[in-house]
What we know:
The radius of gyration is 26 Å and the shape is elongated. The longest helix has 21 residues, at 449-469. The protein contains 15 helices and 22 strands. The strands form 5 sheets. Strands 10, 11, 12, 13, 14, 15, 16, 17, 18, 20 and 22 form an 11-stranded mixed sheet that branches. The protein is 24% helix and 18% strand. It has helices at residues 8-16, 80-89, 192-197, 211-226, 246-255, 270-273, 371-380, 449-469, 490-501, 517-522, 528-536, 545-558, 563-573, 599-605, 639-654; strands at residues 44-45, 101-104, 120-127, 134-140, 146-151, 157-162, 171-177, 189-190, 234-241, 261-263, 268-269, 281-292, 329-340, 355-361, 384-388, 478-488, 508-511, 576-581, 615-616, 620-624, 659-660, 668-669. It folds into 2 domains: 3-241, no CATH class; 260-419 and 449-669, Alpha/Beta hydrolase fold, catalytic domain (Rossmann fold). It is of the alpha/beta class.
Amino acid sequence: MKLQLLSRNILLALAVSGLGACGDSSDYDFSANANGTTGRGTAVARFDPRSGVIPQTNDLLLAGSTDGTLNIPTATITNPGQLGLVNSLNTLDGFGLTAPITAAFGASLKAGSLQTGSSVRVFEVRKDVATQAITGVVREVTAAELLATAVGTQQDTLALVPLKPLKESTSYLVVLTNAIQGSDGRAATSDSAYLLAKSTTALSGEYAALEPLRQLINNQEAIAANQGVSAATIVLSWSFTTQSVTPVLEAMQRQAAASPLLISPTLGASNTFVPALAGKANVHIGTLDVPYYLTAPSTANPTAPLTTAWSGAAGSFLTRYNPAPVATSTQTVPVLMSVPNASALAGATPPAGGWPVVIFQHGITRNRQDLLAVADTLADAGYVGIAIDLPLHGVTEDANPLRADKNAAFANDVERTFNLDVQNASTGTAGADGVIDSSGTHFINLGSLLTSRDNIRQGIADLLVLRRSLGNITAVPLNTAKVGFVGHSLGGVIGTGYLAAETAATPASLVTTGGGIARLLDGSASFGPVIQAGLGSAGLTPGSAAYDAFMVVAQTVIDPADPVVLGAQAAAKHPVHMIEVLGDQVIPNRVTGAPLSGTEPLASVMQLTSRTATAAGEDGIVRFNRGAHSSVLDPGVNLAVTVEMQRQIAAFQLAGGAAIAINDSTVIAGAAP
Length: 673
């Protein structure tokens, strides 16, 4: 029953169905069942391998793989965009942990008949690696984990929507029964190909190519029978295996080592660079050497940072079987550090053992200078702040005295933007305009989803190296055993992954951040229109089947670096203080139709308790009823909110993550949105 024995013609046909072409999948709303249907006729669970009509999240698409990655056939794909997406999926060692799983039916479905644990049964299973046969059931997946709903304009597609991330590197068996009904109230039936494949008689002659598939389906139905599901009631079954996450994360952590970290004498107080500040912290600059696992630009490939992805030895894909990334270069990146001075409440004398440290990570399109906005607050609390730029971010203004090329003492550092100029700043179209592309312009890369994922991974790897290199600083005495973290926006996205990988205790404040990145961006009032315009230029219209399919692929590719996947692990290792602003226009609190996207889903997977008053306890989320996305840095919208946010951050560090202190309850909301 080895899957590689399946006919190549069948495998090729599987690619014909494309991405999301199994049924009418437009206008998906995955968060709730829709009322009313417009389709007609008996619902038939579509299954025709020869025509490529199968549930697309399916271990049949591992058949023939030589390295454990997906093996979706590409020979018949002529659309370059579709080919690129399939090639991205074919680097993964399994399917997504958060994206919907769909099965097409021949007619509209009765929403009330779709019940996980009843008409739809899903089991976590064990498999024989060599034969792909299911050997046992671990447990049944519940309705609290997986929502069954009808989607599409005709409501003729069943979607199984994760309400919690699925387990990584885990196999699942999906069993659909005739308790599913069409809108006409009649029981769903099997497609003729599935009826043939579930036969207990071996197939031969013109059907011989389906014999391995028949054995597979017989195995699946036998396993289901052991769980009380009669084979006579099964209209469709299939299995799928999720991709790995932890192996690459652990490899990153193992490979992170102390690196040269040079720091200058002070360049002046914080108000030298931001006049509105009180000047309680002295500002230092420096450099850090980090291994770069993407590819830096070169004469031969000047846009390499926009198209390359991480790889293992000999260019192999990173999987559970081969998890260690290989660096392509060492980059010397700029560092910014703030140190308490005599104006700070803590004074200028470090405590015994040195200053404790807070690593600050900025948000998208920002840069390391955002540290200065919190530097005085950290100084009053007696903390050094240190910051580096996210990949493809940095200081781009030529007149800025903190730009990498402005200090002769550090001749080797380069802004992390690589000074790329490949986009017209006025029009957003491709092409140089003589102006360095602004910070973060290329971080979210719709043209290369693997690069987007690995920009996040690179940010995680950089933070791991920074943490381990703090002991190499000689200009200022530091207590490297007492290190905390603050991540704002995208800095919290990367920070969640960092916390999941970090083994040393790290109290962390994650400010206006979230998970479920694909739909988070799509649902963002700030980024959504940009994303939609970009995809629209490629012919993908919001609400169309192709658009939704792109979102599924994007989330599947990004899953291994997504906070909603890594959040539980991060919170299990470290105290977490999360800040949310209700009505955030950049990182949405929630996203309609995407139950794992936004701030609230991340708080949920982290199991954070709502905090409205000072209380002991390591973890919690504080929801602000005023302010804006960047209020932690900018008091312009509401000074009281900025003060409260920064006080909470400082107090959380001073308490070692053991308590969240709330001073001004007037800006705090209690209920989740």
